[in-house]
UniProtKB/TrEMBL annotation, chains A, B, C, D:
GO biological process: inositol biosynthetic process; phospholipid biosynthetic process
UniProt name for this protein: Inositol-1-phosphate synthase
InterPro entries on file: MIPS (IPR052199), Myo-inos-1-P_Synthase (IPR002587), Myo-inos-1-P_Synthase_GAPDH (IPR013021), NAD(P)-bd_dom_sf (IPR036291)
Gene Ontology terms, MF aspect: inositol-3-phosphate synthase activity
The Myo-inositol-1-phosphate synthase GAPDH-like domain, residue ranges: 213-318
Native source organism of the sequence: Thermococcus barophilus (strain DSM 11836 / MP)
Source species, domain of life: Archaea
Taxonomic lineage: Archaea, Methanobacteriati, Methanobacteriota, Thermococci, Thermococcales
Pfam families listed in its UniProt record: Inos-1-P_synth
Family named by the database record: Belongs to the myo-inositol 1-phosphate synthase family.
Length: 383, 383, 383, 383
């Protein structure tokens, strides 16, 4: 059994919940889940025990009703048992056309953290999954500064994700072990403040920013060119979508944090910083959750020849990430069982755009995949 | 020093010769050569000592003049020293608008083979590189049958490549070791007849069909999907170009041999035979050596979501292969030094579309690259 | 009222029937119908009175059941009233995995024609729409030869479409006027034998080959370049789909007739025959009715600069044609009312890939659209 | 003879100068010039008599030297006779990595205008072509306000283009007639202040924003869809390039003026404002003058079917515009001869992204082309 709490009951969290329940009912296969059902913990062992959001229209409603907004077909009845709770806001929906409220509206951050930890002690999650909306944030790097910000109720300095991760460390300490999966760009597995805290608190952190969309594909295409010693002249990559995450990214500050994640891949894989333009480009509502991506790469081949590649695609954003979460939840539980407190680069390198810890970079996903399998106790596929 | 004989002085062979000489002069870097200058044998150590063709307008001419047809800029003077010799034809230019003649026009195949072996004993190549035009062929699999076909002067049964590879085995036996690099689709490293012969004759064979163009990229994109357990619904891949090789492929029989090579990658990588349409599509003269490729892939992601990728590109055909040859020649020499008679899967798996021996299949190129580096005595890049 | 008989109850004919009935019920707007509801004859005035096929599993079944194969949602009850009748086969489903039978299996062609004319005299269609599978055919050009072939029961010489068009002329003569819409590549509006017959028999012919898919888009893109006096160096266009029509086109002879239609557009629009590769490329079953197209165009701009365009797309094949038929049926009735016997270039030039009569060619569709509107008595949109 | 003064001796102005001179020498055909040599005024009749810029490194240098920066091959000697003069700056190169100076650094704007008019009276241009860098601007709409701004030396309110256009009207009044071609987004032909002035001053204005790149192609593709009554769900269009104009557009205010121009096309052609994201996206230096464009369109076809088109391309930016200028210069002279003071919609509708006057919108370019031909006294091509 792997007990899960979801932070941010939006598109990704909802598709995750629906997909897992459909698999349990036997309505759906394992496509889109990298490790399918190869792990000792089965997909069918996942149980969603709690859910948090700050959208007023979701708080207090059963999951069954909330996920309906994201799925037209029949919803599994089993989602009637979980009710969405009020979480930490801290402006994470600022500038979005959503009425929001947070626990911290009526208490200090410290009190809010305590309240959440109490709730978790009842819900008993093994793994806490963060799929909040992309935030504008500043990393801490110093554990002391982080704790001070909480103590001083410094709402300008903290984001919801940072507060949740802090709460997770308190919870893990109390119950003897837990995992926190950070699937959004806020640096947690790349922030030494949190890693230090995690090691002291029996917390496993996976992060940061789930590796879906164009970026992991770009990584593999660049690795393909690097291996042939082709010199990449330039890369342009565009992304446009119609879900809340793209709407949130029209906010300049949030966009910036995303850009950082996406760009680092170029230098990590090629070994030099080829001129590139890689950022989420725009919001176009009718595209919905199925984003449009376009990528252009120009490179030098033997004898000075210049080649060009163009990749375009329509990609369902939320299912891609939700499929990864099905693995991450189970791997999180495994890491807790193994007491690998802190973070696990082998897992992050495959599943995350910005794999922690900070001193490690991106490697080609195909290599990362094999290393992750080995970490998980599975046979490599081709190695 | 790595002494090379080129079989088929067309686009690829000419760009290879020009590029190597430009590098020697310091006019060109190592882009497009996968191993750059990391091997103990340097690019500058390559020496072209002989060249064969069956195009009447090339035979007897200095390389310097022949390569001019494929390169507008200045040609290195060093190419004045090699004269193109008459090779084996056996219809390899059949149906193409080229006047051709072969050694076998005036003697039996057996005599032609003997003549070639004599010439090679003078030229003293370490490595013989086959870049003839794509042929319609039938594999042998039995060494006896192959020898019988030569003995009986069975011109219908044999192709130029098969005769050349046979000659290479005789030559290797006499001189104590040599390598034969088969960069075209005719099965040599995948034909047990030739592998058996090679092992007995101190011959190293690399093959078959140099891994350039859309196929290795397809392999890596499919591996990318396979690792995420995405179910590939269908793949369509088109290729159109304007060089002699595309013209040759308008011939139905030649096209078929190409199709075989390109399609096997799907099952090898995915583990199931996703419906696919992968074949060289057409000839369009003004495209020249820079082919246009287009690929469409449709796959199932988590929760049944269906995504689509489209990849298009303009890719210089000949430089891509010529760059690989710069490595293969040096790796061939290394294999001879190590006496690894027969074939070397670690090399083929990265450099060849249809890596021999026959019982082995395709693996993701990114994995193959690391294994090949290890075989070559280099540190893996990411593993 | 416009009474319609459908020849070939496949994908296109079925989507046409479903769409028209859904519009009558108010379930669907006019998207995809070029003239929407601007004509005096309304979409709601269309009545399907008969249907013919040679697929054994369709003959004798109500339309309501047959169209189910092509549409997952609810089917309008109104389609229960029409039963699919046995038509002319003449090998039109040859080599396809369909069990077929034709009227001519048990009688001469002449008798079959008579039987059909009798049936039509009962059904009283104003317009007969031909959407059979693409055929391998030879045009007649001489009316006498056509009549002789029917009289002599020359089954090798004739295709189903040719026999149907002949029957239409007999029927039109008897009832005083009718229209025949040929939406497939077989030359009818481009065959003088049929035009001569039509003029004598009070028949209006529209044809040939409904202008859907990549070809009309290519025409407009080429016109765009021609107007800027850009010199087109080369054009490659690929098409791959999974419906019966693509399966039929894997047959080499059928493919050839399609290729003719598609290629003529280049010279017609540009004024010179730019090197091109334009043909239906392949069959890939999972693509279904939604084909994948890819097009590459290279052209010379001012001062010798070379530009490139790539167009790719996923396009639903059958609805595109079905939408045109909604207009063609109504325009056919209008032409009959105006007694414009023979053919009407103004209509063909917009709606057909190969607009008859033969001596006329393609013009940019945007121009053709305005001329067609004027012919139909509507105000031009931009002119 | 058509005497031309160029304002802004950058990429476009330089390719224009080189191309025209190469044509005079017989080195180049008429590709990329929409009307080729059909007009009574021949391409060979164009004479460049003056050039203005504010880049310190260009002022005072012969055209021959300046154009070298944009062209690697041999430069026609005839360009040695024109020297680049100092023009109006007003911050038009602000934030760009270029050292700039303007006439107004040492005198009032009014004096600068007088100086320029005096110089033009010597140079005697028939046509003044404005190809300055894209500016952030505010239209005037009132002639009085415009004149007041000049009189009051209001440097914040005016841009270089506005001052040049004002100078052109004074010059035209004095010499009895002249033309001003505004090829950049600043509204001139769409600003009633300038049109009123032009009518009083014997000035012809063509504008605004030369119709090159993705926008006119988008217009024709949208017209293609509109004519088939397909409902456009959404359009995304990206543009990235490496020339100074793209660098200038990284400036938010300049970008905004561009966006306005590009977006209006959607509503003008479709008749409704389909959701769209159309803007210049980014700067990527190695792309140089050959920009990369990507466009995604999703639309509804018959029976509710949803289709998708993706268009990508590499397009040389400056030659495309330079080719249009070759026509515009000659059409400007023709308009002067016909005394069509003010502006000419028939010309603007084909050649401009934002055709003046303001109350007129975009029409499909293919239609606009035919109307422009008719205005120019040429036979329509297809109408």
């Amino acid at each position: 059994m792997a007990r899960v709490v979801i932070l941010g009951q939006g598109y990704v969290g909802s598709i995750f919940a629906i997909g897992v329940e459909r698999i349990k009912r036997g309505d759906l296969g394992y496509y889109g889940i990298p490790l399918a059902n190869e792990l000792p913990i089965k997909v069918e062992d996942i149980e969603i025990v709690g859910s948090y959001d700050v959208d007023k229209s979701k708080i207090g409603r059963p999951l069954y009703e909330v996920v309906k907004r994201y799925w037209e077909d029949e919803i599994p009845e089993s989602l009637k048992n979980v009710v969405v709770r009020k979480g930490i806001h801290l402006g994470s929906l600022r500038n979005l056309p959503i009425e929001a409220e947070g626990l911290e509206d009526r208490m200090t951050l410290k009190e809010a953290v305590e309240k959440i930890v109490e709730e978790w002690k009842e819900l008993k999650p093994d793994v806490i999954v963060n799929v909040c909306t992309t935030e504008a944030f500043k990393p801490f790097n110093s554990k002391e500064e982080l704790i001070k910000a909480i103590e001083n109720d410094n709402r300008e300095r903290l984001t919801a994700t940072q507060v949740y991760a802090y709460a997770a460390s308190l919870y893990a300490k109390e119950v003897g072990g837990a995992a926190f999966v950070n699937a959004i760009p806020t640096l947690i597995a790349n922030d030494n403040a949190f890693l230090e805290l995690a090691k002291e608190s029996n917390l496993v952190i996976f992060g940061d920013d789930g590796a879906t969309g164009a970026t992991p594909l770009t990584a593999d295409v660049l690795a393909h060119l690097a291996q042939r010693n082709r010199y990449v002249k330039d890369i342009a990559q565009f992304n446009i979508g119609g879900n809340t995450d793209f709407l949130a990214l029209t906010d300049k500050d949030r966009n910036k944090s995303k850009e950082y994640t996406k760009s680092s891949v170029v230098k990590d894989i090629l070994g030099y910083d080829a001129p590139h333009y890689i950022k989420p480009t725009g919001f176009l509502e009718p595209l919905g959750d199925k984003k449009f991506i376009a990528m252009h790469i120009e490179y030098v081949s033997f004898n000075g020849a210049i080649d060009e590649l163009v990749i375009t695609g329509r990609i369902n954003d939320s299912p891609a990430l939700a499929g990864l979460l099905v693995d991450l939840v189970r791997l999180g539980k495994i890491a807790v069982e193994r007491k690998e407190w802190g973070t696990v680069y082998e897992v992050n390198a495959f599943y995350m755009k910005n794999p922690g810890p900070a001193e490690k970079g991106n490697i080609p996903r195909i290599i990362a995949y094999e290393k992750m399998r080995q970490w998980a106790g599975l046979k490599p596929r081709w190695l």
